[in-house]
Amino acid sequence: MEALEIARWQFGITTVYHFLMVPLTIGLGLVVASLQTAWVRTGKEEYLRLTKFWGKLFLINFIMGVATGLVQEFQFGMAWSEYSRFVGDVFGAPLALESLLAFFTESVFLGLWIFGWQRLPKKLHLATIWLATGASALSAYFILAANSWMQHPVGVELVDGRAVMTDIWAVLTNNTLLVAFPHTITGAFAVAGGFLLGISWYHLWKRRRDGIDTVDEKGRVVVGENAAIGRDKTDYNVWIKALRVGAAVAVVAFAGTAITGDLQAKLMFEQQPMKMAAAEAACHNGTSFSVLSVGDVGAQNCEDVKTLIEVPGLLSFLANGDFETEVDGVNTLIPEYQEKYGTHLPDDPMYGEQAGAEINYLPVMSVTYWGFRIMIGFGAIAAAAAAVALWVTRKGTVPQSKWLMRLAVFGILAPFGANSAGWIFTEMGRQPFVVVPNPSFTGIDNVFMFTAAAVSPGVSRAELLFSVISFTVVYLALLVVEVRLLFKYVRGGVPSAMPELVHAGGSGDGPDSEDTPDKPGGRKSDDVLDFAY
């Protein structure tokens, strides 16, 4: 493997891993803030329990997201120093705003929320979680501003071979950013909705399995309770409300991702036509959307690609909003790219092993084609499952089927898969560019960078390979830690976040049922860091 390929694997592995935490942090954080708002407004015990339980899981995920996110910025100087030199004047501004403004605010107010239970007035304490989660969304905006500039550079000029920013507001109001941000936020809500749905289904099923809840002859729930282990009638209200809220959020979020995704696709057809042609395996000009194509979708000449199922006119609608305008295919676009940007990389030492190599303007079509469909397919499956869940639970509980419970729990992964596939498609689809040329504004189309020129020249293949293996091993270990913590506290239910709910003498149902205020040496429930021990 060449240094370029290893460097790309390194950044890809760490970025996709980190992004598993991002949508859950954003989506679940805003849900927790909404639940706490409901508690402050109504005073209902169920909303306090919802806030405490989901807040615990939010914190576990947030901590892991911070640990993996910090690595991302260091990589720009480790394996991609030439890229950093080229875009540093532009990239530095949104990254600095993210760190100094958004992340600082997020960290400070999240700390106040963690330690402020029973110490701050209710409304002031509520404000801290809203400020923390709002800052998370703001952080995403600044990161997306940097990424959107890579997809569509604006507000810059080329000076001595470097991109120099001339208009910060153009960067922060990039039209690519303005559709990418709501698409990302709605995707985050889809993840949070699926998370709530799957876990709540498990706990409602467990109540039925243990005989706490039953159903009458009309199939309506008869709520029971076992207060000794914290599974009283309020516990039932917690899970049924979380399930139905999660399902509703997932359905609405999918509608939001579909609308913003359509806007994003229309921009991509204009700004990165090769990416969208590859996503459709559209070798020739046409109007039809490929539902299923087979063959060697990685071949540059497209000779072996065969479309088996297609929808006439749909591709034109996605690109232009009508059903008749032809969309350029791969075979039309490649000569246009070659004429504008050359057929071979410059014979320059900065390109290392790639110097003078022929440029392949077609991304890996198998990745873009299937990534696009996995993104849409998994999102649609998650939304359909949420709609079914709303119908199935209309009488107040879930079926006793263990397989349905397992399906609901595994369904949590679907929106995660959709988000990850979307990012892989977005980043892989812009190859061979790390900064894509902007064809929309005269004079800016010369601000671009081939990925082959972005790698640090002083880093060897052995060093890169060592870092990839090291990161992979460390991240796998972190994954095991996070999954174990999540499983531990999910299985424990609300008592895992509020151990005082387990009555003295009860059998306990939390992960550490012995640590209750009713027993000598027990920790108080407001010790929100007890998950670390």
Please characterize this protein's 3D structure.
This protein is mainly α and 533 residues long. The chain has a domain at 1-79 and 460-533. The chain is 62% helix and 5% strand. It has 14 helices and 8 strands. The protein has helices at 3-42, 45-78, 81-115, 122-151, 168-172, 175-209, 233-271, 273-279, 314-320, 330-341, 365-392, 402-410, 413-428, 461-492, and strands at 156-159, 162-165, 214-215, 221-222, 289-294, 306-311, 433-435, 449-450. A two-stranded antiparallel ribbon has the order 1-2. The protein has a two-stranded antiparallel sheet with strand order 3-4. The two termini are 43 Å apart. 45% of the residues are buried.
Question: Keywords, please?
Answer:
two-stranded antiparallel sheet; 533 residues; single chain; metal-binding; globular; mainly alpha; transmembrane helix; 62% helix; 8 strands; 14 helices
The N- and C-terminal alpha carbons lie at a distance of 43 Å
Can you list the strand order of the major beta sheet?
Answer: 1-2
Summarize the helix and strand pattern as letters: HHHHEEHHEEHHEEHHHHHEEH
Level of helix content? 55-70%
Please report which band the strand proportion falls in: under 5%, 5-15%, 15-25%, 25-35%, 35-45% or over 45%. 5-15%
What oligomeric arrangement do these chains adopt? Answer: single chain
- Biggest sheet descriptor: 2 strands, antiparallel
Q: Which shape, going by the Cα principal axes?
A: globular
Structural class of the helices, strands and pairings? mainly alpha
Q: Show unreliable segments.
A: 504-533
| Gyration radius from CA atoms, angstroms | 25 Å
- pLDDT averaged residue by residue: 84
Total number of strands: 8
Question: What is the count of helical runs?
Answer: 14
